[in-house]
Amino acid sequence: MARRSCPAVGGRANSAGSDVPVAAAQPPEVRRQQLAGSPGAVRLTVSPWEPVLELHRRLIAATSAGQTNDAMAFRPHIGVAYCNSNELAGPLITKVDPLRELPTVDLCTVSAELVLLRREGAAYRWSTCASVPLGGQRHGNC
């Protein structure tokens, strides 16, 4: 399989501090919610989704990859663990259940990392293509 490279972002390829037009976008205000799971993954839910989805749409539009991305397939979350084998969920559910009672936390978003995600064997690997600082007015502890 041919290895793909990072797409050009904001007119410059593989650039940190890129001039992507979303850099002036208001950082999404999100709250880390409780622990959740799905087949093969444990994640922290974030809400509200709409500001993150809007930033996601802007970032997709700003790349020159020419690829479309179904925003409905993107579920804003913070990945905690991925399982690369078939395991019974019961033991994991029992271990992480107490963590579901942790209080929610406001999150400070200061940049968006654009990555090229790929699957290598049973593992996910990624390369950072660009780091886009988010502008707008900072709030809270940002």
Q: State the shape.
A: flat
CATH architecture: Alpha-Beta Complex
CATH topology term: Cyclic Phosphodiesterase, Chain: A
Classify the secondary structure makeup into a structural class. Answer: alpha+beta
What is the CATH class? Alpha Beta
Query: What is the total tally of β strands?
Result: 8
What is the element layout, followed by pairings?
Elements: E1 8-9, E2 12-13, E3 30-38, E4 41-47, H1 50-62, E5 77-82, H2 89-96, E6 105-107, E7 111-120, E8 123-133
Antiparallel strand pairs: 1-2, 3-4, 3-6, 4-5, 7-8
How does this model look, in words?
This protein is α+β, with helices and mostly antiparallel strands. The chain has a single domain (8-133), classed as Cyclic phosphodiesterase (Cyclic Phosphodiesterase, Chain: A). The chain contains 2 helices and 8 strands. It has helices spanning 50-62, 89-96, and strands spanning 8-9, 12-13, 30-38, 41-47, 77-82, 105-107, 111-120, 123-133. The strands form 3 sheets. It has a 4-stranded antiparallel sheet. The termini are far apart. The model is unreliable at 11-20 (pLDDT under 50).
In short:
Helices cover 15% and strands 35% of the residues. The chain is an alpha+beta fold and 142 residues long.
Search tags:
142 residues, 2 helices, alpha+beta, four-stranded antiparallel β-sheet, single chain, 8 strands, Cyclic Phosphodiesterase, Chain: A, 15% helix, two-stranded antiparallel ribbon
